Amino acid sequence: MSVNIIRTTLGVLMLIPVFLLILWMRKKKALRSTTEAHEPEDIELDSDPEYENISHTAAKREDTEEQGDMV
Question: What are the Acidic residues biased-composition ranges (predicted)?
Answer without folding.
Answer: 41-51
